[in-house]
Amino acid sequence: MIQPLTHWGRHIGVRSQLFLSGVLFGLMAALARIAAKGGFSAGQLSLVRFAVGAGLMLALFAVRPGTYAPVNRRLLLTRGALGGLAACLYFVALSRIAAGEATLLNNTFPLVATAFAFFTLRERPTVHLAIGLAIASVGVFLVLGGGTTSFRLGWGQLAGISSALLGAGAVTAIRALRATDNAPTIFFAFCLGGLLISWPFALGPWPMHWGLWVLALVGVGGTSFGAQLLMTHAYGGLSVPEAAIWQQLTPAMSYLWALALLNERLAAVGVIGVILGAAGVAYGSGLGTRRVEGGTTGLRT
After folding, report:
1. Average pLDDT, whole number, for the chain?
2. DSSP string computed for the chain
């Protein structure tokens, strides 16, 4: 009886990590929107985000020697390139369209990642998980506009959709990497990839107000660091389909933070959406996933 209880407790832990990750990602989106309105370009915000993350990870590696332990270098490079480009495009979307709409478009990546995981990691969602994902997705749509969210294909919308497609490949790479590499090493690869991709787009004039710099460094960079590290660690204990369910909470959190910080109003239909999102998460994650024979095993933290 002890082993099943330990297994269940571990899963509660990683699910809690994904929940907190969604809260922080939602906060980051709202803060990034504020910083963009203050004068930061998408490239500058992206560069700041990755510089903060890389700096904190270098500090961790100095304090705890041996933490940086790359094993699958080719897949780490893939994760860094895909994740870095996806994050940059997400900031482009945040700088051009509302935080809620940008996050909604970006957060379609779990749906694509679930399909990728079936073919690359041989993780097959149960019928119950698929139902839960559908319920959560409907809830997200209701939260982010009550059926009136604009989907015209401007540059902001295209950037959000493109970030989702690239992000799907990135999180699938994370899931595969967690069989060989620890979360800090994977996150550091992500930061390096983002830095290399971001800097050419951050060469214009930078804002000079100290308050905006605090917002960018502590708000955007700090929340992103916490959210990304929690998400990366959690992918070592959950399949991509179940993690996709939990990450459907991120757009709802983004909208709620925008409501608090950007004075956006939540309509009654949005409240229904929040309830549906939570119900989808509870239903889908509670009934779990199954693996196709020969699927990925041996994940380590």
Report:
1. 79
2. -HHHHHHHHHHHHHHHHHHHHHHHHHHHHHHHHHHHHHT--HHHHHHHHHHHHHHHHHHHHHHSTT------HHHHHHHHHHHHHHHHHHHHHHHHS-HHHHHHHHTTHHHHHHHHHHHHT-EEE-HHHHHHHHHHHHHHHHHTTTT-------HHHHHHHHHHHHHHHHHHHHHHHTTTS-HHHHHHHHHHHHHHHHGGG--SPPP--HHHHHIIIIIIIIHHHHHHHHHHHHTTTS-HHHHHHHHTHHHHHHHHHHHHHS-----HHHHHHHHHHHHHHHHHHHH-EEEPTT-------
